[in-house]
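User: Can you predict the 3D structure for this chain?
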Amino acid sequence: MGEDRVLIEARNLSKHFRLKSDSLGKRADTVKAVNDVSFSIYRGETLGLVGESGCGKSTAGRLLIRLLDPTGGSILYKGEDIAACSGRRLRALRKDMQIIFQDPYSSLNPRMSCESIICEPMSIHTELSRAEKKERARQLMRQVGLPKEYANRYPHEFSGGQRQRIGIARALSIGPEFIVCDEPVSALDVSVQSQVLNLLRELQGRLALTYLFIAHGLNVVKYISDRICVMYLGSIVELAPSEELHGNPLHPYTQALISAIPDTDVTAVKRRVILEGDVPSPTRLPSGCLFHSRCGRCTERCRQEQPALKERAPGHYAACHLYG
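Assistant: Here is the predicted structure, written as structure tokens:
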């Protein structure tokens, strides 16, 4: 895909959080949640972002839509660097970029009805009349599979899957082009997960949406994503088309994640890759390859030199010395 197909791009994007110093005056540590990350998302595609809890997935997603201000790097949206945008321009960008949150209950105002929740972004970003907003809200409810009779119900009166549908309708209410789906199905039952995933795919085809889909389960991400980006300790370790990543994972961390996916075929013989040790502290990142302390194929070079994310096959990138 050419540069004209790129909708949003992160270049050397970083986000560091400064922790508070303790009562004894000990020097505060810095958490490098996202550290020098670069990737592109093409128009109309779904880029999956996976990794263990705490690896920086959600932080990266919130940086892209400027819910967080980056520590360094740039964010190009349609060629415009929006990392330094503020005020009126940033507010205008909100119409194009929205987010679906992980928890479908805490992300909804319990004192607002379903209809009011969906209408709220329209009240801020559009000049629609009250009647037009209500009609738009009812239309969106139909699109996400909620009966119009539920318009005056409150969040506690809905199931988890229904609440997430309200969150999706709210995100769509002002006609965005790019949506960050921040683990939108992780809090739902498995049967409901498939319904929400199918709804997201249907809406993408109908409305020409572009997604960044964040999750920690590779099986879920494979179903919905065109390409998959694997993160570890705030850095990208592998990026490839979905089928290519699952069929030919290069990075040892990706291989371990794929080996952990449950197999429905109980007779299949599957080689399980067991990771040793714990994830290092994000305040004290290890030297060399960030994964070397848990990798069974670690060499001395891995301990000393951090590998660059390089193209090892057409469209397949990996940050690993094994493929030098």
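The radius of gyration is 21 Å. The chain has one domain: 3-20+28-96+176-323.
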